[in-house]
Amino acid sequence: MKKTLTTLALGAAMAAGPAMADLVFPDLSYRTGPYAAGGIPFSDGYNDYFTLLNERDGGIGGVKAKVIECETGYNTEKGVECYESTKGQGALIYQPLSTGITYQLIPKVTADNIPLHTMGYGRTSAANGEVFSHVFNYPANYWNGASGVVNYLLESNGGDISGKKIALVYHNSAYGKEPIRTLEELSKKHGFELVALPVDHPGQEQKSQWLQIRRDRPDYVVMWGWGVMNQVAIQEAANIRFPMENFIGVWWSGAEHDVMPAGDKADGYKAVTFHNVGRDFPVFDDIQKYVVDAGKAAGAGDQVGNVLYNRGMYAAMLAAEAAKTAQEIHGTADITPAMMRDGMEALVIDEAKMAALGMPNFGPSFNVSCENHGGPGLVGVTQWDAESKTWSLISDFKPSDTEVIGKLVEEDSAAYASENNIEPGCK
Amino acid sequence: MFYREAGDFKVSYADDSQTFPIKFDRYRYYVVLAVAFGLIPFLINDYWANAILLPFLIYSIAAIGLNILVGYCGQVSLGTGGFMAVGAYACYKLMTAFPEVSMFIHVILAGGITAFVCVLFGLPSLRIKGFYLAVATLAAQFFLVWLFNRVPWFYNYSASGQINAPERDTFGIIITGPNAPAWATYLFCLIFLTVCALVARNLTRGTVGRTWMAIRDMDIAAEIIGVNPLKAKLTAFAVSGFFIGISGALFFAVYLGAVEVGEAFGIQKSFLVLFMVILGGLGSIFGSFAGAAFLVLLPVILKVVGVDLLNWPTDIVAHFQLVIVGALIIVFLIAEPHGMAQLWRVAKEKLRLWPFPH
To answer: Are B263 and A201 a contacting pair at CB < 8 A?
Structure first.
């Protein structure tokens, strides 16, 4: 544990202070910069769900939830500043929505004993809870996503994609590079050819990448993009008349704002997902009634039901459920970050629970354990219909290639453990 | 009344040429050092270290480095981000290759490597000037970022292409990694800043500094009076690179702990440090401190006032910050091209005559 030279004096002062009254959920959001289009709906969903719990249920286990929003601009330095400024206020869990900030926070949260939940992003090998004691990435991670894409292509090609050419257009950062290792393994296994095309931050300039795609004529294009990069890529794909049904994005490249700018030309674009899409869930009626109509929405209230709004709400729901689990385990409503971690590790999400929350069939059922912080890794596929302006699920949630992924997780987490002198194991 | 030379008698040449000839200035300087070394380490916590003091100390080193190049030698550089990346990656490679060596040595070596790279990219400055040199250093910026992204050897073949600082110590005190105590990281950076500032201050007061300034003011005239432009320009690039390399190494190893080259050392970092130098004052060591403090503190103060006190939405505050920084740069360029250092200088002149200005 970190100690200042005056820890003793400070510790005495803190012990004398009053107990924390609220359950604090910091929201490291970004509503500015080139990634704001994705950051805004996610943050709105995250905030609105906790507002709903406060308004409808009087909080979590009788204690009000308090969301502290801190603008990171998807920038790691600001992310660190946000982390340091909020952690002293009793933060229970961090969800930075940025792989770069996640890499910063992994060692810090472990030292500070605060859990970190990186749902569908972050360091994939954090699925191995024996090494990453405070990092969770259930219910799915990047490598599940990469494998899900390949499985979907296998399925639509009758189980054989050998000799096909797949181009990966990726954000040239830790985030975009994450799937390459898995895709390389899978290309060996299934015999397809992988072409990786990096796009530099922020991604507005992609002419050369798409020129190369036009020349190479890959059978499929897979995209690992975020922010303004998605819109540009879809527009560029439309410009070179690349067939949209052969263009598949990861779950961060598949929201309404990504496809809208290309208009009708984006029709048929696909994206993988780990949770359901649309507005047809009872929980949205409650959000409309208690939050939006009451004028308590975090944003303009126009994002409800969007893909990323749903994801933010889903992230908040998983955090709230973990907090409830922690309250049950420890028998106290006023939980600490350490208790929250125990709650996350004992989290059970089943269909009955989801239905009771007004989200039937919204996401997978899963149990978190110390060995597995990564969840089941089920991946579905959605497709954009430009006419009705909706995403719809065209392939149900299916398991990914755990054989390949499991080995890679093992390898990468072992490397992290040896770099940082961590003794893997469950306490 | 207190701030004047009168009564402070200099009896030796050493006294006469000291950095702070005025007694009040000298005592103020000792008090600042005493507070920085003797008081703050006992009060510091993680928030103050990681959000305010470490970035301030590290950016100050970078700003001093860039100020030597731009402010003293007149060679415009837009490659600061790339050179900081060289320092960071050099430090990372050294840290992972020689884990038992003290961090002090790693950081100094990283500075040395950066100085070398900086001299290489400084070679064109012998033939080109002004805007053309700025473009040449801009090329260095993009080339270096591309290089560290492209060649896996630099990031030890990690899957994400990031570099992560492992836990390293000096004299048994942990300096890097999440378990490093706030006071240790703070003192570590403070020592580097103090030494760098002293070296820079004395270099700029001596022969080397005078040749730099001669080149800056008029290179042909300088050459005629016997200044060797090759030596003057390349020493400026070397010293500047050394400081910037140290700041890059500290930025990665001590402050952030994990770095992605495109995001942390992109072109916006070059501009940020350049803005620090311009706002603070070209050709002034104090200006480097003032500029760094201003641009590190401004977002934090705006956030505390806007979000925590006034409860404004976070995005409005973030946008305000862009507006305010932009407006300030324009205002300074028009109203006070010599930056905050000039304001300070004017204040000191006024103080000397106070309370009887006539």
So the answer is: yes
Cα(B108)–Cα(B246) distance, rounded to whole angstroms? 7
Length of chain A as a residue count: 427
How, if at all, do strands A220-224 and A247-249 pair?
parallel
Residue A376 or residue B116, greater confidence: B116
Task: Determine contact, residues A379/A145, Cβ cutoff 8 Å.
Answer: yes
Q: Mutate one of A5, A44, A182, A205 to test the B interface: name it (highest B CB count within 10 A).
A: A5
Output the six-digit token pair for A28: 């490291």
Helix %, strand %, coil % for chain B, to 5? Answer: 75, 0, 25
Q: Using an 8 Å Cβ cutoff, are B86 and B253 in contact?
A: no
Quote the strand ranges of chain B, DSSP E.
163-164, 169-170, 173-174, 258-259
From residue A223, alpha-carbon distances to A149, A191, A210 in Å are 10, 20, 12
DSSP characters for B221-253?
Answer: HHHHTT--HHHHHHHHHHHHHHHHHHHHHHIII
Q: Which residues from B are below 8 Å from A131, CB to CB?
A: none
Q: At what angle do helices A337-345 and A307-330 cross, to 10 degrees?
A: 100
Spell out the long-range contacts of B91-99 with Cβ–Cβ below 8 A and sequence spacing 24 or more: B91/B248, B91/B249, B91/B252, B91/B253, B92/B154, B92/B155, B92/B156, B92/B163, B92/B165, B92/B252, B92/B253, B93/B154, B93/B156, B95/B165, B95/B166, B95/B168, B95/B176, B95/B253, B96/B156, B96/B166, B99/B166, B99/B168
Render the burial of B60-86: b for 16+ CB within 10 Å, e for the rest.
bbbbbbbbbbbbbbbbbbbbbbbbbbb
For the record, the structure tokens of A63 come out as 């204690």
Predicted complex ipTM: 0.85
What percent of chain B shows pLDDT beyond 70? 99
Partner residue opposite B258 with nearest CB, options A75, A78, A103: A103
Other CB atoms within 10 A of residue B158 CB: 16
- Round to whole Å and give the CA distance between B198 and B214: 21
Q: Is A350 helix (H, G, I), strand (E, B) or coil?
A: coil
C-alpha distances out from residue B148 to A112, A204, B82, B168, B247, Å: 31, 21, 10, 23, 18
Q: What's the CA gap between B265 and B144, in Å, rounded? A: 10
B129 φ, ψ (degrees, to nearest 5): -135, 165
pLDDT, mean of residues A264-291: 91
Of A4, A100, A106, the CB nearest to B44: A4
- The tens digit of pLDDT for each residue in A394-417 reads 988 888 888 889 898 998 888 888
Contacts with A14 from chain B: Cβ below 8 Å: none
Contact call for residues B125 and B236 (beta carbons, < 8 A): no
Q: What is the pTM of this model?
A: 0.89
CB contact under 8 A, A32 and B318: yes
What spatial distance separates the first Cα and last Cα of chain A, rounded to whole Å?
A: 17
Nearest chain A CA: its distance from B162 CA (Å) = 6
Rg of chain A over Cα atoms, rounded to whole angstroms, equals 21
| Interface contact A117, partner B, CB < 8 A | no
Chain A positions touching B258 (Cβ under 8 A) are: 76, 103-104, 106-107
| Residue A152 reports pLDDT greater than 90 | yes
pLDDT band at B308 (very low <50, low <70, confident <90, very high): confident
Please check whether residue B154 is in contact with residue B147, taking contact to mean a CB–CB distance below 8 angstroms. Answer: yes
**Mean pLDDT confidence for B276-301:** 90
Q: Are B294 and B276 in contact (CB under 8 A)?
A: yes
Residues 73-92 of A with CB under 8 A from B: 73, 75-78, 80-81, 84-85, 87-88
User: For residue A356, what are the CA distances in angstroms to A80, A234, A321, A360, B304?
Assistant: 37, 38, 12, 8, 40
Q: What are phi and psi of A166, to 5 degrees?
A: -120, 125
Q: In this structure, is the dihedral angle defined by the CA atoms of residues A88, A91, A93 and A99, taken in order, positive or negative?
A: negative
